[in-house]
Amino acid sequence: MSTLGNSTNIFWQECQVGKIDRQKLLNQKGCVVWITGLSGSGKSTLACSLSKELHSRGKLSYVLDGDNLRHGLNKDLCFKPEDRAENIRRTGEVAKLFADAGLICLASLISPYRKDRDMCRAMMNDSNFIEVFMNMPLELCEERDPKGLYKLARAGKIKGFTGIDDPYEPPLNCEMEIKQIDGVCPAPIAMAGQVVSYLKGRGFLES
Amino acid sequence: MSTLGNSTNIFWQECQVGKIDRQKLLNQKGCVVWITGLSGSGKSTLACSLSKELHSRGKLSYVLDGDNLRHGLNKDLCFKPEDRAENIRRTGEVAKLFADAGLICLASLISPYRKDRDMCRAMMNDSNFIEVFMNMPLELCEERDPKGLYKLARAGKIKGFTGIDDPYEPPLNCEMEIKQIDGVCPAPIAMAGQVVSYLKGRGFLES
Q: Which EC number(s) does the record attach to this protein (chains A, B) (predicted)?
């Protein structure tokens, strides 16, 4: 029995079927691929392409998209600093559950602050947290502006927008970086290929 | 683009690999088995036994245990009424994600209030929400008292304890009920067998 945060009289329930068993069933290892970067840097594109590539190899993945979660789990949160942190904390906790379930969890969130990403990493076994930095220039992201948000931010209609009037803190020790080569962005399938190679090399695509 | 709750400028991101594809990979259908009942009624026992039975059939399930979630996702919540409701809301949202990922999600929570359980049901396709009521007499649960909590509640050391000084509202239209037969509790494997039969009969154990 333990007292945790605001809860008392909480027990930990252990089941006979554990992560190892689920991984055997799926022939893969559960982990979290945490994709971070500016709005418009291609996070969702990578996550979707990656889920397609993994699926074609018979691997089970699931995308946790920051925006999508705000339709459900995180719909009580807004964009003030403490809510942004809580948004990322909850996403990290859910990603951890998916990894424990044996899935390759693809978390796609701007997650601009280093300390929030590091908090998520600290929740789980470090080797199961693969931070992928979409290292694209702000100018490119702003030119793409797929959601029209940079325009709104520049016009002052959105406050605290990452890259405009709120900082993005690039990772210092991420596992992977996706960037332009000679000023050209890799195609989605090429970006996904990079991550698949990494996962394969580290043994995540077998149990 | 939409405004949702406290969030604005939120888009919905759709991927090419969807629930149907994941279900084909797993040869099962994603759903939520929501196990409700008094403390000591056997919820966790059923969830664990069920995960074992499903695993032995090559089916992927994952247990969301109310107490376990309070160690992570819900560690900011206590047991006051609004936090209890939020605890259940978040669990429902996460269970929905697991079902969408193609898993048979086994949610095990006292979830004493009808409106909270119905809120979770309303989050998803009704046919994918299977409410299992552990219909055990309070006297039996209190006699078992596996966590020693009834004793504390009777001594006034825990306030608002379900069944003692806070109500348990039994389901009115649950999909399944587990109860004593001639005053005898079914063995865990028998309880699990009941649920497996239900899932099989409804086509959840094939894609």
A: 2.7.1.25
How large is the ipTM? 0.94
Contact B149 A102 (CB under 8 A): no
Nearest residue of chain B to residue A153 (CA atoms)? B9
Three-point CA angle B130, B131, B136, nearest 5°: 145
Say how many domains are in chain A: 1
Task: Determine, yes or no, domain membership for B16.
Answer: no
Chain B residues touching residue A27 (CB < 8 angstroms): none
Q: Say which CATH number the domain at A57 has.
A: 3.40.50.300
Instruction: Please state, in angstroms and rounded to a whole number, the distance separating the CA atoms of residues B117 and B90.
Output: 12
In a domain, B13, yes or no: no
Q: Which residues of B171-199 are buried (b: 16+ CB within 10 A; e: fewer)?
A: beebbbebeeeeeebbebeebbebbbeeb
Active site residue B7: no
Catalytic residue among A44, A49, A51, A111: A111
Domain of A56? 27-201
Distance of alpha carbon A115 from alpha carbon A170, whole angstroms: 11
CB pairs under 8 A between A and B: 163
Q: How far is CA B27 from the centre of its chain?
A: 22
Is there a domain that residue B173 lies in? yes
